[in-house]
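User: Working on a comparison across species. This one is PAS domain S-box-containing protein from Streptomyces iranensis. Can you predict its structure so I can line it up against the others?
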Amino acid sequence: MITARAAATFEPVGRSVAAARTFVRDTLQGWGLTDIVDDAVVLTSELVTNAVVHAGTTADVVCIRADTGVRVEVADRYPEREVPLQSNGGHHFGHPDREGGRGLLLCAALAARWGVEYTATHKQVWFQLDFPDRPAGTRAAGPALPSSALPIADSRVRVGVVQVDSGGLISAWNDDAQELFGYHPEQIIGKPLTDLAAWPHTPGTGTGVAEALLLSRWEGSYGIRGADGRVSPVYASHLRIRDAEGEPSTVCLLVRDLERAVLQSPMRGANVDTAETAERGPATDAFEVFIGSPAPDDLDGLLQRTVERARDMLDGDAAYLLLATDDETELEVRASTGLPSARQRFARVPVEAGTGRYGSARMPAVHEDLSAVPGAVPLLVNTGMRSVVTVPLKVEGRLTGSLGVAAESPARYSNEEALRLQFAADRIALAVERARLTELERLRRGSLSFLVEASDLLAGTLDRDQTLALMAQMTVPTLASWCAVYTVADQASEPELSYVLHEDEDRIDGLKALLMKIDPPEQVPTGGARSWSGPYDAAHAAALRTSLRSLSLGDSARPSSGPGASLATASAVGGETVVLPLVARNRVIGMLILGKPTDEHFRQENLELAEDLSRRAALALDNARLYSERTAISQSLQRSLLPPEQPEVPGVEVEVIYRAAGEGNEVGGDFYDLFPIRDGAYGFAIGDVCGTGPEAAAVTGLARHALRLLAREGFGGPAVLERLNAAILDEGARSRFLTLLYGELWPQHDGSAVLKVVCAGHPLPLRLRQDGSVEAAAEPQPLLGVMEDLELYEQTVTLDPGDVLLCVTDGVTERREGTRMLGDDGLLDVLTACTGLTAGAVAARVLRAVERFAPDPPSDDMAILAMRVPEPEPADA
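Assistant: Here's the predicted structure for PAS domain S-box-containing protein from Streptomyces iranensis:
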């Protein structure tokens, strides 16, 4: 007798398989048939996959509940008879290694009854699952317990019954709910249940109360805020139902959290009859135990437990699980047991290994004796395994991995074991895929953070050597165990080993020596990582030669060091080694080498991250190269603008201090010069071009060279400056005004010195006498580079023995701290205290006063020129 019926139609697309599973699960859970839900979902998934993926038609799914069980019918619109027909020998299922057709095999294994029906337009496959044989009214039973072991509850256990309509509003509120939370029905009916929920999410899950109300069945803990404002922890059991008019609602049973045993369902797989279980003994299917237990949160833990359970389930000696890459062309080893995992982890094998019968990982395969087909399973070469069974992991028809179990004895496995393993793989495939996607998202977020930090570090330096060090330090040990960087000076140059780093500092010297002995990898401008066997081959050849030499030589000729160092180096580079080109501005500027120790492989995610890093590192390295080249050019040009060696002036002490503002600048807008004009006459100058940097330095070079040329042609001070003014104005838009103090110095036989100076808009020179008085040594005149017709004149100053002439640029007098400025008065005070000091001491004291005036470094160019006529030394008594 049919008691309930539900039907749905699904389009011929991959996502329909998941939708069909959800439909069957929700339908059976809504009918309270949780014991047979999993088997029904597995069978439905296979049959709907055959319809929408392989047959390419829509699929009609019908669930029928009867008195003795549930019947599920899956119909497609492809009535061709490619299904097994009955014969005298029973059902002939074909071979389980086929890509499709496993749905009927599973029906035969799991269903109580099943069959195939045809019409002119449809093909229908149906199966029936009978209800478990239990006492009437009993779904599950626990063992008899002593009173002391029973859960504790109040003497009066209250179960609040709350009904919530499709809009989430409370439509019913019983007396126990009123006693538990203090609300009368008229106060609470019509309000959303979520308004009372104090915890928006169930602890330990990502499901909120609002989402839980939409599920067909849900159990968990949350809080209800009572009428007194206090939160009461409750344990809830939700059941979504439908009334006679088809309107859905949710019935919520609520008890105090400490009384959860009243509502809490037993774990799946709980024993129905303790005595019967004791007779049967423990569960024999280890994989079923795994499915029923809480799965590990992390992907590696889930995969490791999967291979262990698969090995135990088939009584194997080893097991392994591989995950498919995004393009489904390769499989990557992610977990194994009974195999050398350190050697196999992250190793890759192609999905399509050949054209033979078992050449594709997309189909189940059974190898009865691997010795008869050497290399059929590359992962098991030289492991001692003789027989193996492998099955694919698929999600919605897409290959996501492969699970294999192997044994040391031949002929251990048959198609029956393949069917059992495939059934287990189908159950775990979705959980593995979800865990893989979660891990992939976590890795991508970590990769993004890593690349952001790497970009910041690489952008923070323009030094080539520091950039090379950063490249290596960011990859070791995060991405690789060791790293080497080769650089290429130009297209015609051979790669040069520039940096080597190993996570074990004691291995760096041996690794560097090894790489220096072998040819560098070939330069390939194409992106992507490629394997390089050079270090591995060279290291093992060297270790072999050292070992043979140590064994063949006598004690007297035995080398002082044994093969230990060579073997250590061979072990350090014995794993996978990859080469990543460093390409910047369409030119190969180097190569980044990453390596692993013996038998280790790179993960694909790490290689992709290394490729991203290599692109950023290449650009940073090329920027450092360009900066170094331009800095060298700039420094060379700037040095050409500085005066050559300072000449010795007889009878006069001369000291010059020069500071150019700006990082990397050696020449700015301020300049000085001291040069011989003719016998007994010297020219000196100190000036300030408007502005700083290269533009001002260009005018500086013009002024200095023009002064020397004109002075040596015999022109006097005013004529020299007038012609320089005309030259500056000839520069047009590039011209800049210039303040200049120019003079000619004649040391005298009596120990004094005569100076003829012209001060064109420049800070006035200061004369310090022996008595400590300070006075200006010239008068101000118009600056250069502004007016065409200048009428300048020179003034004569005589420096007596002990006198000092101080000339500075405005970078000294305009030194600031906030609104304060050193100024002319401040400079005057500093100079007044310099009586009796040498020219060098005077210049140093002025510089110290400027630096101490403010904590910040000076922001303007600065030049200080001090000349002193020394006092005659006293005659010997």
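For your comparison, note: The radius of gyration is 45 Å.

User: Helpful, thanks.
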